[in-house]
Design brief:
103 residues, mainly alpha, 3 helices, elongated
């Protein structure tokens, strides 16, 4: 199998063609209502809201990075932002699980 070189570029007509964007949209759908819909009412504007913002920022950052043009470094920067948002979602969901186990 051939390894990509440093000139490797992502070829997509738009962000919707990117598999990573498509999968991140499915993540939003799986987290937004099924998981956070059962949170207590008092969590609506706290942890639930933070999770919603973080999970929505994943596909948003991917889309923005791809839409800014063909600069590989610019797209990578937005992918790292999306990765950071994924870590944020993971941490917040772990926290929610721990808090629900204690109640």
């Amino acid at each position: 199998m051939e390894k990509p070189n440093d000139d490797y570029r992502v070829v997509a007509r738009n962000y919707k063609d990117l598999i990573v964007w498509q999968k991140s949209m499915k993540l939003v759908e799986s987290v937004y209502t099924p998981l956070t819909g059962n949170f207590p009412r008092e969590e609506t504007y706290a942890l639930k809201s933070q999770i919603h913002r973080a999970v929505v920022s994943v596909p948003s950052n991917i889309a923005e990075g791809q839409a800014r043009g063909s600069q590989k470094i610019e797209f990578q920067r937005f992918l790292y932002l999306a990765l950071g948002s994924l870590a944020e979602v993971d941490t917040q969901l772990e926290l929610a699980i721990r808090l629900m186990e204690k109640s």
